[in-house]
Write a structure and sequence with these properties.
This protein has helices spanning 4-11, 15-22, 31-43, 50-57, 81-96, 109-118, 131-140, 166-179, 194-209, 226-238, 251-263, 281-285, 297-314, and strands at 62-68, 100-106, 123-127, 145-148, 160-164, 185-189, 219-221, 245-248, 273-275, 292-294, 320-324, 327-329. The protein has 338 residues and is α/β, with parallel strands linked by helices. Helix 5 (81-96) links the parallel strand 1 and strand 2. Helix 1 (4-11) crosses helix 2 (15-22), helix 8 (166-179) packs parallel to helix 9 and helix 10 packs across helix 11 (251-263). The radius of gyration is 25 Å and the shape is elongated. It starts with a helix and ends in a 9-residue tail after the last strand.
Length: 338
Amino acid sequence: MITIKEMADMLGLSTTTVSNVIHGKTKEVSEATVERVRRVLQEYDYVPNISARNLASNQSKIIGVAILNSRKGYVNYLKDAFISELLGSIERELKERGYYLMMCFSSDTRELIQRVSAWNADGLILFGIMAEDYQAIQKQFQKPQVYIDSYLGEIRLNGVNIGLDDRRGGYMAGRYLIEHGHSRIGFLADNLKGGDYERYCGFREAMSEAGLPVLDTDFIEVEPDEQSLAVCYEMVYRRRHEFTAFFCASDYYALCLMNFLMDRGVNVPEEISIMGFDDNIYSRMARPAITTIHQDATQKGVLAVQRLMEMLERREAASDQVVLPVELVERGTVRQIN
């Protein structure tokens, strides 16, 4: 590849002038000179050495996005449409600002931070972090941080958390099913932590408010990997007569459950009603389309990048909890029981 010095010699210019044109600093350079340099850049397909530039400015222009695989059974988080939409919005926002995204998936907090630190990331966006993970991260990474859907209990946050009114969403789902005549409702999730726990609490609140019981056996824990998930849904199929509806903690599980039951001749919603949570592409493409609780994954990603950029520009940490609203989206998987 042609070097800046070689281009400067070829054009009879200083290396500083050529470098300024490459990096867009053209206020002190004539239009004719800018055009001459750009023609050479195009002719030789010149690609700037970003690593060298960032080293000189003590910035990597890399933002780490970390997801801790703390839940058993998760192999590929990108299969989840919510995660894919979230990461897509983060990457787009970072690209517009001249930054690069580095994704880190691990079951070990220390490994996550070591990888981010090794690349000298300027900042960090973390998803689904619990209190014990947060404390370890604070000890090892001192640069600006934004959290998404993280649940830290009573710990004072040193950063920004972009969250959701999960409990309200669970309550809305419960009330909707109850108002449609359902009193025996199963709740499906792969854990009772963080957002899923809040959704479960909201669901139980709606049931309690209506004077309806919630048995421990009404919570059905599913395993995320495909083989175990099929075994769990087989158990749900055998227990289907105990319930008139299922509220799933995500659209992914709602769609998987609906397909599993319909493949075995169970009609949705005529024989069993199903609700999801997220309002992602799964719920919209399913037939029947899934009644669900809407959240805006794209907005979460946009806000996370905006807040992180604010901290980087000010070179100081912020402490804030942002709680985004939820909405009920009525489609075709819940029937009215007379």
